[in-house]
Specification:
- The structure is a single chain.
- The chain is mainly α.
- It is built from 22 helices and four strands.
- It has helices at 20-43, 76-84, 91-114, 116-128, 132-150, 160-169, 174-179, 182-190, 196-205, 214-241, 249-280, 290-318, 323-326, 329-347, 352-365, 367-385, 389-401, 405-422, 426-444, 448-461, 470-477, 483-510; strands spanning 47-48, 51-54, 57-60, 66-67.
- The strands form two sheets. Strands 1-4 form a two-stranded antiparallel sheet.
- The longest helix has 32 residues, at 249-280.
Length: 516
């Protein structure tokens, strides 16, 4: 009897792999943005605000903008920016992200080769196959709530790795998997109720009572939750009726075949083990079933991995409201993914040599994603090196100061959208913008609470739009969905949300959303 089909297969192709076409399309878009940013450093005058340090945070001083001489920043450095940022003052964050991608890509590849991922997916499918749409609703609510109330975004991105194959196994597609994970993460951040990185920081700078005005934000949260859930459910039902209608149908077929391969191998192995026993009759003692041994080994690997991820999630959630410790989200997740992946592979009877080879292959599969992230980060580097970041902010502040209340609120929204293109961190944008927006709100006749709401809207929703957002690129790199395909799928939803946010912002201006 052969049990080869029941053993871990380190040569199996990982489902986590960035395709050549997806990479080239995304790289082309980001390269164009790098060039546009470089051209802006030539066109726009250079200028700076003065800054002060309060409680360890650097704040812009309102009314201190002044022109400065243009720096010597030649165009050829636009193209070397992706390398330069590795040696910039912000390089620790970038290096941490790269370490995170390598650990997650390599670890998931080990779990796939050991059959642990299939074991996890099969268990989830068996549990939820008859309650699929309830599953969609609950998962979306979970991701949105964690992002909105606790502010956890980075730490939840790795969960996309499990949501996509789960969606495919339940008869949907990769986009549905992203719809129940990435979409609610981004929209939960935008419909923040008590998010410490957007609401809390912005309100503290604006001298507002902490988490005041939550009643309107809670209403907004559930409106957005209903829209996102309806969008994903309608798409999932469409894919169920006609799988070929999915934009990722061909790519998902390969993933679906891989998910079914291990299950077929297990079934064939079980049949092979039963045949000799049937021929020998009841006289001999039954031999140990290879299927049982393999299944138990995979289960042990799965339990180990689940414990590691559970510990990581506890740490991420526990430190979410501690800005100093929340920066540990990526390295903690990366380290525990590595421990979980390697340990899970060993417990699933994978040889140490195969684990090393599979890890390297998995990390190499996501290497193009690292290139895209370096390019995306370089957009901000180009703007800052050309000393036009503050110029853009000053121009927006000048427009806001001259606008009537309703227009001013929407200009705050638009300004945050623009700044989010260059600065992904919500708290960093708050420290840069809110010292300017707070006195402007008083000047133009909108409440500070409305300014905070407009800031929150602008920061959150663009997280799923701009290719300069490293988290968006990381999330997509875990799937077969390219950035252009993602935008094609979500643009209608984005337009609906834009209309909803505009309506809520107009309401906030009309009722003088406060307390002040």
């Amino acid at each position: 009897m052969s049990t080869d089909k029941l053993q871990p297969d380190p040569s199996r192709q990982s489902a986590i792999k960035i395709g050549k076409k997806a990479f080239l399309l995304s790289a082309g878009i980001i390269l164009a943005l790098m060039l546009v940013s470089g051209i802006l450093t030539i066109i726009l005058p250079s200028g700076e605000y003065e800054r002060v340090v309060q409680d360890g945070k650097t704040l812009v001083v309102n009314g201190t903008y002044h022109a400065v001489p243009k720096p010597a920043y030649p165009p050829w450095r636009w193209l070397t920016a992706p390398i330069e940022i590795l040696f910039s003052k912000d390089n620790l964050t970038l290096i941490t992200i790269i370490f995170f991608i390598v650990c997650v890509g390599g670890s998931i590849s080990i779990l796939e080769g050991a059959g642990v991922m299939e074991e996890l997916i099969h268990k989830l499918v068996r549990r939820f196959s008859k309650r699929k749409y309830l599953l969609i609703t609950l998962v979306i609510l979970f991701f949105m709530a964690v992002s909105s109330f606790i502010g956890v975004y980075e730490g939840m991105v790795p969960m996309i790795i499990f949501m996509v194959p789960l969606a495919i196994s339940l008869g949907w597609d990769s986009l549905t998997g992203l719809g129940i994970s990435l979409l609610p993460l981004a929209f939960g951040f935008a419909s923040a109720v008590t998010n410490p990185f957007t609401v809390a920081v912005a309100q503290r700078i604006a001298d507002l009572p902490l988490f005041s005005g939550s009643w309107l934000r809670i209403i907004f949260f559930f409106v957005v939750f209903g829209i996102v859930t309806a969008f994903v459910v309608l798409h999932a039902k469409k894919v169920e009726r006609d799988p070929s209608s999915s934009p990722t149908f061909k790519e998902d077929e390969a993933i679906r075949a891989g998910l079914g391969e291990q299950q077929r191998a297990t079934s064939e192995g079980a049949a092979a083990s039963e045949a000799p026993a049937a021929r020998s009759g009841a006289a001999s003692e039954p031999a140990a079933d290879p299927k049982d041994r393999t299944s138990k080994a995979k289960t042990r690997g799965l339990v180990w991995f689940a414990c590691c991820i559970g510990i990581a999630m506890i740490i991420v959630l526990a430190t979410a409201r501690m800005p100093g410790l929340s920066d540990l989200a990526f390295p903690v997740m990366a380290l525990l993914f590595l421990i979980g992946g390697v340990g899970g592979g060993r417990l699933a009877q994978m040889k140490a040599g195969n684990i090393a080879k599979t890890f390297l292959r998995g990390a190499a599969n996501l290497a193009p994603g690292i290139v895209l992230i370096l390019m995306a980060y370089s957009v901000k580097h180009i703007i800052v090196s050309g000393k036009i970041m503050d110029t853009i902010l000053y121009g927006a502040a000048t427009l806001i100061a001259a606008a009537p209340p309703m227009a001013a609120a929407f200009l705050v929204y638009a300004t945050t959208l623009v700044m989010n293109f260059f600065i992904g961190s919500a708290s960093a944008k708050a420290f840069l913008m809110m010292p300017l927006l707070t006195p402007l709100a008083d000047l133009v006749g909108i409440t500070r609470q409305t300014a905070v709401l407009a800031f929150d809207f602008g920061d959150g929703f663009s997280n799923m739009i701009f290719p300069t957002n490293a988290l968006l690129l990381i999330a997509l790199s875990f799937t077969v969905v390219s950035y252009p395909r993602w935008m094609k799928w979500t643009w209608k939803l984005q337009m609906v949300i834009l209309a909803v946010t505009s309506a809520f912002l107009a309401l906030a201006v009309a009722i003088r959303f406060g307390p002040f």
